[in-house]
Structure formats: structure tokens, C-alpha cells
Amino acid sequence: MTALSRFWAILAAPNRVFDDIREGRVGWKQPWLLVSIPYMLVTYLSLPIQRVLVELNDKNLTPDQLDKQLEIMDKLSFLWVLMAPLGVLAVTLVLAGVSYLVVTMMSERATFKQYLSLSLFTGIIGIIGQFIAIVMLRLRGIDQIMTADDARISFSLRVFAPAGSPVLKGFLGSFEFFTLWGFVVLVLGLSRVFGLRRGQAIAVLVPIWIIYVGMLVAGEVFGGMGQ
Questions:
Q1: What is the number of other CB atoms lying within 10 angstroms of the CB of residue 48?
Q2: What pTM value is reported for the model?
Q3: Is 175 helix (H, G, I), strand (E, B) or coil?
Q4: pLDDT, tens digit, for every residue of 95-150?
Q5: For tag attachment on the chain, is the N or C end more exposed, with fewer CB atoms within 10 Å?
């Protein structure tokens, strides 16, 4: 299969991608490229939104200090877009590295390169979710962002969290459609590529989910400090 066909296959017919990973017909570089391109676009589209959030949260800065901070952001924006692929790879390496310890306990034939490839392919689903959310925000209008909550469109249970509860918001935010979709595909991939039983594959997700929830809670805590 070509890179583009694998992009669509991981969404509609993931077993075809899993078989390519298992048989060594694809490595980690191709899925990294497939994840990086849309993530660079997501990063670029989110720059104006991040700018507005800085203006909202940095209320303790003087106008001159705020202008300088925004000027620095504008100068570094192109670098942030270029660095997006490295960010994706770094995060995936950390999550895959932590959870791979569980994989090795359950499968003798597992290799880290195969697991990294599988993790990057399933990461495409999450990036698509981010892209859809950013596009919806841009279509709604950046001028409509008055609070940090206005700068997010969530496909998660976070909407049911009470106000002023960052831990609960982060926890419920982890139950997000595209994230859960990616987890399901990862479970299927672990079973197909490494021969793990369904319960074993789900166990691999536990450290990933704990880290993910921790990141969401931290984002809720620190993201709301300036409000």
C-alpha cells in the first residue's frame, strides 16, 4: 500500500495496516510523516487562538510587556510549526516507551519499532480530531473567544463537568470520541500484530491513559490560572 492508502486504511480498514506492520512492510517513518503533516497544519491554524489566550490570561502584565510577549510569539510562530513533527515524535516515544514495558511482558515477538509504528498510525485519529476542532473554532470566529473555554471545542464528556473543578474536567475530558476511537484501534492492533488477548491489549493502555489524564488535568489547572 502507498502512504496515502494507509492513511485512509487506518480509519476504515485498520487490519490492512496492522498486517503491514506485522510483516515488516512499513516502519515508523511513514506514519510519522502521515501524522506530522496534519499536525503542522493544526499548529499553524491554532496560532491566532493561542495569541488570544495569551491576551486573556496575562492580565497582570503591562500593555508594553504584553506587546513584547505577543511580538516574541509572532517571531517564533514559524519555528513552532516546523518543530511540530519533533513534538509529535517526542510525545509518542514517551508514551510508547512507558507502555512498551507492559507489551514485552505479554508478547515475546513484540519489537519497539513495530509498536512505535502502531502508535504513530493510531495517533493519526487523534490528530484528525484536533484538526476538526480547530477548523470549527476558526469558522465560528476568533473574535468570539472571550474565555479559555471559548477556545475549545470538545467531543468529550467534559461538557458535563461542573464549573471550577479542573480535576473532574480533565478526567471527563479523557473520554473523548477521537481518543477513544484511537484506543480501540490500538487494542485491535496489539491483538493483530503481537497476538495479545483483548484483556492484555487493554492493560497496555492503562499507563497511556493515566499519563493522558494527568496532562489534561494539568492543562485545566494551569490553563485557568489567569482567569
A1: 14
A2: 0.88
A3: coil
A4: 999 999 999 999 888 899 999 999 999 999 999 999 999 999 999 988 888 877 78
A5: C
Nearest in space to 72 (alpha carbons), one of 85, 61, 88: 61
Alpha-carbon span 133 to 42, nearest angstrom: 9
* Residue 59 binned pLDDT confidence (cut-offs 50, 70, 90): low
> Region 149-164: what's the mean pLDDT?
82
Q: How far apart are CA 141 and CA 89, in angstroms?
A: 31
* Grid cell 485512509 in the structure block, residue: 8
**Residue from 104, 83, 85, 81 nearest 93 by CA:** 85
Consecutive H or E run containing 114: helix 112-140
Q: Give the single-character DSSP code of 156.
A: B
E strand or H helix that includes residue 189? helix 177-194
Alpha helices in 61-111 (DSSP H): 63-106
The confidence score (pLDDT) of residue 225 equals 44
